[in-house]
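ok so I'm stuck.
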Amino acid sequence: MNEITGDKDFVLALLRDTARNLAARHPEAKTADIKKAIKETTGAQKVERDQIVERLQRAYEQAQMQPVMPVKKGAKKGAKGAKAMKLATGLVGAVVQDAWYAPRDRTIALLQAAMDEHINQQTGAIAEAADAKGITAKGKGAKKKKLTKTAAKNIFYRPKPPKKAGAATEAKVFIGEQFDNLDTGWLEVVNEKLKLAFKGKHPFIRHQALTDFRYAMNNQVTVALLADWGGGNDHATNVGNEVRKRNPDIVIHLGDVYYAGTESEVQKRFLDLWPGVQQRGRSFALNSNHEMYSGGYSYFDLTLKAFQQEASYFCLENDNWRLIGLDTGYVEHDLTQDQVEWLAALLNDGSNKTNILLSHHQLYSGYEALPSEIEGEKRLFEWLKGFLQAGQIPHWFWGHEHLCVIYKKFQGVKGRCVGHGCFPYSIPSATPPLPGPQVEKVIRASDPKRPKRGIHGFALLTIDGKDISVSYINEAGNEDFSETI
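replied:
not stuck anymore, here's the structure
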């Protein structure tokens, strides 16, 4: 996660310029061969390139239409206030403003993944600092140099070519200012990355028997829950180190490897830094929207294999408790029929165990207007309302929003958002700006190095017989809040 990949203005400008470039010239061609390459482009290549250009243009237009909604102190409460806020901004699914740009858009996520890859290729180093002033690049020998933010941006744009006899016309038409002089190497990288948008999804792994994907858990056990942690930045490193210090028996990720869950991102930003033991029954990971932006292939083929996890949904259980993980990413912010049937069999097996649900997406929020609510479709609630109304799911932990919020009971369940694993976010208001759920506690501590940003952390569950205590621990090693379930 290089600094400029979180710079909204630059990302959108590059998005616009890339669409223009790809529409005008063949990305693999050298400048002198552009006319010839365009002429020789096959029909299939042109259709593919046109599809990529269309996706980029559509993403740019939608990004311009849907700005983020900052949470302001003293925001109006109640249904009228929330409705007025939506009407005034024209937003659908407005989100609390993050300090780092990452809209929930597949095309932009793939573009940002390509940006990181191109910067790393060009500098010869993986620059993962969350808020670096420049980018560390390998120089000759053991020396390193700092690239300024301007120099980092220039990695994507070539200097204007010198004017030479016979070349001036070509330069003006194909690589002049009207096409913003983008680097050909960048166009090759982003062209290949955007092809993932047309690859389709990895096949979903379904149970064969209704008792599949169940794992035994000790009656005395510690479980660390991380969410939105796969960024590979300094916050992820700090949080991972704090998890290791406590040596939990089980570590579970509630999803999101940035920006698009590609193979290199999953390997370098997630698996290589994972603070748990990568063996069956010790580490688990849930699917999410960011993993699915690249089709979910790295999640299903790399992460699940590394953790010896059979599927994207599972149950951990002992004599008193069950931790039930569901996949709300394969169908974004939704469930599959297979999972609901499996869950129904689990919850209605006649046991007296207390159930705790785990997912990436939230059931409700006081800080984000869910698209399903605006569309009139209570997706997760509609699937699960019978279980919720019967009190079968009293507790639920989720991520997705880059906040740490402990809610009071709402819609039959006490929800907890722990999506502050590593992604930079602005400090939220103490009172939710949207109607509905009320908070018991929202973590508003600031990052010691960046006072305007919120601190990052994770939840540690300590299960002892019939009792569970939960500590919300931040990256500095301090406990922000604790509760007993």
